[in-house]
Amino acid sequence: MSVQPIDPKKPDLEESVNVAEQHAAVKNASSAAAREQQLRENGLEPVSIWIFIAVSLVAIVAGSVLFSSNNLFGYDKFVKSGYVQDDEVSSEVLVPKGDVESVYMVKGAGIYKQCMGCHQPDGKGNASYPPLAGSEYVIDSPVSVLMAVINGVDGPITVAGKNYSGQMAKQINKSTSNLELASLAYFLQNSFGNKVGKIYTPDQMEQIKILNKDRSEGYCTAAELDKYRDVQLEGDLFEPGTIINKKTGEVIAPE
Amino acid sequence: MSTITSPVLEDTKLRADIDRSLRHPVMFFFASGAVWLAISLLLGTMASIKTHAPDFMSCCSFLNYGRTMPAHMSALIYGWGAQAAFGVIIWLMSRLSRQECKKSGIILAAGHWWNLMVAIGTVCVLSGSGTGVVWMAFPQAIMISLVLTYFFIGIWAVIAFRVRRGGHIYISQWYLLAALFWFPWVVISGLMFGQLFLGDGDALMVTASTAWFRSALMFLFFTPVAAASAYYIAPKVTGRPVYSYHLAIFGFWALAIVGPWTGMDRMMGAPIPAFMQFLSAGAAVLLVVPAIALFINIIKTAASNKDALAHSPSLRFTVAGAMGMLIFTLMGAVMSLPSALKYTQFSIAQYGLELTGLLGFFSMCMFGAIYFIVPRITNREWISAKMISLHFWLFIYGIVFIAIFYTFLGGFMHGYALEQVGESIMASSGRLYPYAIGLTTGFVFLLFAIFMFCCHLLFMWLRLGRRSNHPTLLSSHSPSMPHGPEGDLDKLEPMDSNQVAH
Q1: pLDDT in tens, A85-124
Q2: ipTM higher than the 0.95 cut
């Protein structure tokens, strides 16, 4: 915006600027700002009674929500009754159950995945690893096979008429449950052509744990395992077709 | 220029000077915010498609639901929401305080840094190194950097208020000043108690803190900024005073008192004292009160000038935003009733409600403000009324569809499906299928709308807007001149103030 010289036609004006042009220039440079309206702040319409009523209704609802909790400052009773599903309603549907043979087979097959690398999926082993199919240590007693699994085996051993020499590390840890041990024993004794058919209960596995406590630390040897082949578990076996809880192994009584 | 003699012109010049002083940072915030909004909606669409077609683009791990979803929300909140709010805050505060901004360079630099941080954060989330905390998915260093950057942006608005001219403090200034102080409080608290001060395994604390953080950010930052914009645009464009100023003040205090108590209703049933959850559920219902105050005031003010309501894009978006707030809080209230929480607490209803609030209420008000502010700071008029109209209607279709179909029907159906204990989780997901498709459909509408908006805004940023002294209005005055008489800027003609006061 060049500043205009004094207009010779308007000698009375002392300003060096043409005012009208300057005003127009401001308007042109900011036409959006120029057309704006003033913000007015004196809105004093009386507030309708309906707004009061609406606000009161909202407040009543909010209050009833707040005090629908029976126990505002309690930690113990933080779940309001009727809010979560009742145990009675859900327990029947939620408990996973099945007949003991299939539960054991599925569980045992899951555990056997760790063993598959050496003993092969068909349980026949290979030149360096002994077979489980037809193995006297598997068939004769659950104690010998489980002790081998629990402690590992070291040294020469004869399985199904063939000599093997090597070492097997212990395969399970302390957190392995009785249910899992029973499942594994059942699976090994009834797969790969083995047909023992005894369904051990998880409780019987306690006997193996007691036996294991009595022995000294370290790998089992063939001689020790041969001793266990003669040990049989005491107590009642599961009847075929017993329904058990898949998670805990507890027997579920038929209705 | 000391030659300005008329008070009206002096006023105009002051406004124009304020606009000019802020044009770079404000325009930068709006333009980059709009781009982040587009990015966020693209990521949201991707996440939504993944819920009904899991194999779509399964080649790229960064496009998985678990990464696109937090990236989408983070880009929406920190990329678009915060930046749009910053632009509105600094411009509106300067205008209302009648002070030019002297430090726009610092704000612009801080804005660039903010964008860099959001970009790095989004890449981190997409590459799998996000925190996994809802609404705070960016790595902690990024979040801390964002908070520090905020102070370089927000402080100038506080200073503008401190050195304001004129005695009266307008209601928008109340809201803006509150938002300026609440934002750091909410984010720093959320960050400290949700992440920084926690050891491993404090899952309950993380969940509770972020539940509060999400609600607090929504109601103590996004809501007051949107309300400030609405209380400015409606009286400004119509030229009428706010319907009831007392009601506006009442709405402000109602929000200030109720807002901080919300959020814990999402923790219903968690092992925290019961009063927290029930207080939050009650507060969620009480939020309808400030919404009623805002809604009545904006609608009554806008309705006092039917002509402006029909023609002004800013006013149309603002009125839609005020309706959005009422609908948003009503939905939130219904979903927070203890009997309904059973269905909504863990279902898609929560995400749908967040979308409804952020897009249907906050973004609508921000669009209104942007359509008002941008012609002033660029000194150009919007290019096409058609594009504005398309933006408005496509956005409305998208968000109304998401709010009703996905959030409400889908939310309750999902909650019902999850309650069916005997049913497998796959079967309950199957019930969700039509609503997942519905969300994608809604997102496609939103994407088209934002494409219009983004292009339009970027053209304005490039100074390609119309040079005219007639605003771009929504209904054409004559078939030959779709924007009304063009009006040559060099030969200024007298204006009918009622007709073109937009």
Answers
A1: 555 455 555 677 788 888 888 888 888 888 888 888 888 8
A2: no
CATH code where residue B376 lies: 1.20.210.10
Q: Are B48 and B68 in contact (CB under 8 A)?
A: no
Chain A interface, best mutation among B4, B204, B244, B312, by max A CB count within 10 A: B244
The whole-number average pLDDT for the span B175-202 is 88
CB A192 within 8 A of CB A122: yes
| Number of neighbouring beta carbons within 10 Å of residue B132 | 12
C-alpha to C-alpha distance for B7 and A26, rounded to whole angstroms? 13
CB contact under 8 A, A83 and B268: yes
User: In terms of CA atoms, which chain B residue is nearest residue A61?
Assistant: B285
Question: How many folded domains does chain B comprise?
Answer: 1
Question: In chain B, which residues have their Cβ closer than 8 Å to the Cβ of A96?
Answer: none
Are the Cβ atoms of A55 and B292 closer than 8 angstroms? yes
What chain B residue is nearest to A91 in terms of C-alpha separation? B421
Please say if the pLDDT value at position B50 is more than 60: yes
Neighbours of B65 (CB within 10 A): 14
Range of the domain at B416: 9-461
Q: Which residues sit opposite A155 in a β-bridge?
A: A166
Q: What's the rounded mean pLDDT across residues B116-137?
A: 93
User: How high is the pLDDT of residue A135?
Assistant: 85
Asked whether residue B35 carries a pLDDT value surpassing 70, the answer given is yes
Asked whether the beta carbons of B130 and B195 are under 8 A apart, the reply is no
**B486 neighbourhood in chain A, CB within 8 Å:** none
Q: Which CATH architecture has domain A97-245?
A: Orthogonal Bundle (1.10)
Q: Verify whether the Cβ–Cβ distance B471 to A32 is below 8 Å.
A: yes
Domain boundaries of chain A, sorted by first residue = 97-245
Set of chain B residues whose Cβ sits within 8 Å of the Cβ of A19: 3, 5
* pLDDT tens, position by position, A65-78: 888 877 777 655 55
| CA distances, A155 to each of A148, A159, A168, B100 (Å) | 12, 13, 9, 91
Higher pLDDT, residue B210 or A247: B210
- Residues 82-121 in B contacting A (C-alpha not used; CB under 8 Å): 96
For residue B1, what pLDDT is reported? Answer: 42
Chain B residue at shortest CA distance from A25: B490
Quick check: B472 and B449 in contact, CB under 8 A?
A: no
